[in-house]
Amino acid sequence: MYKAKAYSARSATSPLASTTVARRDPNERDVQIEILFCGICHSDLHQVRDEWKNVMPTVYPCVPGHEIVGRVSKVGSAVAKFKPGDLAAVGCMVDSDGTCPECQAGLEQFCPNVTLTYNAPDKHLGSVTYGGYSERVVVDERFVLQVPSNLDLAGAAPLLCAGITTYSPMRHWGVTKGKKAGVVGLGGLGHMGVKLAHALGAHVVVFTTSTKK
Ligand SMILES: [Zn+2]
Ligand SMILES: [Zn+2]
User: Fold this and answer.
1) Are residues 104 and 193 in the same domain?
2) N or C, which terminus of the chain has less Cβ within 10 Å?
3) Other CB atoms within 10 A of residue 114 CB
4) Cα of 92 from ligand 2 centre, angstroms
5) Are residues 116 and 11 in the same domain?
6) Mean pLDDT in each 10-residue stretch from start to end of the chain (213 residues)?
């Protein structure tokens, strides 16, 4: 275990402040990532302000951030997909049981034992998980994604939550050439929806109350 620099909220009303958090030494299946960019998701704001206290009470200090892009600095002996120097990304989840029907189907986001990237029980260190507003993170290789080197890395970070949130339902419902996709609201997720649906070949329509958008 070692300490990594991070930004944390100490209460629902305090601004984020510089601190350090514990990170585990990489085990055989872990990837250690030096974080270069982390998007700011609205979920980060909800969590640090404890606005989900009835379903997911915030454990303070809270280090949010689940749109992480960085460079691999160390890998465990059993890691096959990554080597030091590779670009890598982490989204909303960092672990799951791997054995339930949802995991077996590749739908780890529905696993009853999924571990979210922050504010979730950390089975390794016994505290809670700490997110991407940090200099470094250690994650099981199953939850680390490859990043093409031709992407703008700062712009790629929001793909890890806002992007997948819009991409997943479009794939589920078969958005493709010859189909029409309607996007309600042109905000952080909406503009991704427009670009992704267009890239998938669909006819795209935006519903908005503002003609400027
Ligand atoms: Zn998010
Ligand atoms: Zn599972």
Assistant:
1) no
2) N
3) 19
4) 15
5) yes
6) 96 97 97 98 97 96 98 98 98 97 95 98 95 98 96 96 95 96 94 96 95 85
